[in-house]
# Entry
Amino acid sequence: MTLAELYERYTSPACLAMSMAELAARDKEFYAARRRGDAVPVFGLDVSAPAVHYALEVGLLDAAFTDDLEQGSAGPGLSRALTEVGLITLTGGGSYITARTFTALLEHARRPVWVSAFVLRTVSYQPIVRALAAHGLSTTVDASRTYPQRLFTDDRERQYAITAVRALGGDPAGREENGRFHCLHYESRPDTP
# Structure
């Protein structure tokens, strides 16, 4: 599936007219028909219980957790799940997740873990890079391209993003100046001896 196909699906008049129960039933069928037989297990972590529970209900996640690692420790279920994790992803964020969350995740890992993070250009990822390095991960960033995210809600948010990107040494021309957040892709891998 492409992101364009997902946008088309979820902005269609038919989809917009459905109740949450109808949408969940349709999504469950929709994703089951597209699930690969060799799919790896995917666990979701978000403090938004409705978000992860919906993804779990429709078959996008194999397990879901709402532990707030910015405020506390991983609970028993998440701690057990993390022993199986080999890849941690962050998609289009970084503004509300700090090194504390990544440290908590990596403390429970029992195998080499990679981190693939798409981080908004409005925030510095360097504190997280340092935390990952403390756990034996080397980080690279692909500065050659950005990844568009959501549109700004208003001009105030647009101006905030432009100012924040410039403060971090970035150029908002053709990106944030055009009305949407953009991310950079950071990849962290275990150091090799």
In short: Strands lie at 43-45, 63-65, 87-93, 114-120, 137-151, 180-190. The longest helix spans residues 20-34. Residues 85-193 form one domain.
